[in-house]
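User: I'm curious whether this sequence folds into something compact or stays loose and floppy. Could you predict its structure so I can see for myself?
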Amino acid sequence: MIRAIIIDDERLARVELRRLLTVHDEIEIIGEAANITEALQVIENLQPDLIFLDIQMPGGSGFDLLAQLDLAPEVIFTTAFDTYALKAFEVNALDYLQKPIEPPRLDAALARALQRFEKPTNARLASQLATPQAKSGNDKIFIKDGERCWFVTLTDIMLFESEGNYARVYFGTGLQTQRPLMLRSLNQLEERLNPSQFFRANRRQIINLQFIDLVAPTDSGGLTIALKNQLRIELSRRRATQFKELSTL
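Assistant: Here's the prediction. I'll summarize afterward.
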């Protein structure tokens, strides 16, 4: 059973989507929201697997909502404006449904949802059992930097780097490496990341241990860590000691 919520500022649109979903026993609608403020509260309280998300709403877009979430559920966008289709797929949403929603298109979107949820059964179970401080690597964050948006799986992020109240997020490989900014401090991020996977290297950087390519000692007793994208991270003597202790666990 996929636990879902509907987020749309139009009451009739929410009613119609509920009606269309009554024939789909695999979907359980556990809540609704009419704006971003309500949606943030409902998502925090109910922790849905899937959200049906309107893009244009008073007070901000569906993309603005996703950017405020620590971890993003799966998303099926719903909107009356087809100009948003390309952006919706750029952020790797499950699907994009244009209003008025046709039953065959909804069927196809839900088929994709079922495929997505059936594949990582063990990973999803681990995620459900994890504490907020130790989330599953299959969890995703949503990043909105200007007009560009991304869904990024935590395991694909190699580095978080502080820039004031923002964090620059490094993911991708080679010439395709992305480095968008998100409105989160490193302290906020560190509270949500799995400490067995991410390490606070210094005041400005958190590294993904899976992306370490080389570790070398420094003359001062610290360490230099080279990541697979050739970025070099400096660890003080104290952080180096913590890193070595972590490496022996």
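Summary: Residues 120-136 have pLDDT under 50 and may be disordered. The longest strand covers residues 27-33.
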